[in-house]
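Aim 2 progress update. The chain analyzed this quarter is reproduced below.
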Amino acid sequence: MTTRVSAGRLALLGLVAVSIMAPVTLPVPVLRKLVAERFLVSELLTSLFMVVNMIGAALAAPVAGALADRFGRRRPLVVAALLVDAVCFLAMTAELPFSLFLGIRFFEGCAHIFALSLPLSVASSLGGSERRGLVMGMTGAGMMLGVALGAPIGGLLGRVDVLRPLVAGAGLLVVASALAAISLREPDEVEERPGLAAIAATLRENRSLAVPLLFSFIDRFTVGFYTTTFSLFASGLHGATPPRVGLWISAFMLPFALLSFPFGLLADRRSKTLLLCGGSVVYGVFTASLGFWPTAFIPFGMAATGVSAAVMFVPSMLMTAELAPAAVRSTALGAFNTAGSLGFILGPLTGGLVSEHVRAAHGPAAGYQAAFAVAGISVLLCVAFALPSLLRLRRAGRTT
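Predicted structure tokens:
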């Protein structure tokens, strides 16, 4: 039996996704003042603000699915998780030791993945096979739009008070909880979520899936540089104010968000291998050179990088679904998200380690240049490593 989704409820699902994801990037433009200057810590320790959040998310994601299956209802869990997330955002504005601040950030990541993964689970179960793409497309577009809008808004708020992005994030999460209570409906049929054992078995039996999963890992790995290292680079080296940092990040995220859907349609008509590898090469070159850009070029370079990121993002996800047997397609997509989460954990940490190590010997400019070079070269190495396998899969007719 299929749960019908009205246009109004579909729009509310998209709005819920926007309000859940916008708080993720609200603090990013003020990261230096919020963490490094507020607690007098190094840039490496500042990077932990994003890292511990993703560690919490990675650890809590399987628990969210298990509780939802056992409890039988997802909406109350989503509403509760959003309210806990809001409390964590407010708690981070208090005068705290740095260790406690990071501890709260860890639990905020746990609450956020509950709030995010369960609506995605509900959305994937709505509309039936005929309208699932529409429901998931609206939810995914809302998520990306929320990420894109959070940075410039956080930058504007942070110009007045560095803690305002956290307060605004708390308020937005409370609004999201109300919207979730109104809009989320329990599906008539609850799909099982893949566990780690199922993911591992899928990879063992379908080794070709390692190719798009590698691209998922590298994609999120480099995005981790843009959400953390770039903010520190823009404010520290280019003297950018929080509003300008937010606008520069938005110049990257908005094309990424708005063009992912049309490039996904293009991938159905053109070679996924060409789009994935071609987009990745352009993305890798732009990312590797970012540390050398003059200030005036940054907004244009960020926009071009966002376009290339959109070219490569959806084809990798579609290729995962294409290469996976129908019986394990959901498990394969779960593995795709797991690989991406691991990349997002390691990206900010690697950026902080490289920039701090090189900075000690050669100065801050060289530190940031080295960090972005590592990120960009990792993308180019991914293409070089994966291309022979992709060409074999094309010859075998398993992908385009």
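Residues 22 and 146 are 4 Å apart (CA to CA). Residues 1-192 form a domain with the Growth Hormone; Chain: A; fold (CATH 1.20.1250.20). These observations will guide the mutagenesis experiments scheduled for the next reporting period.
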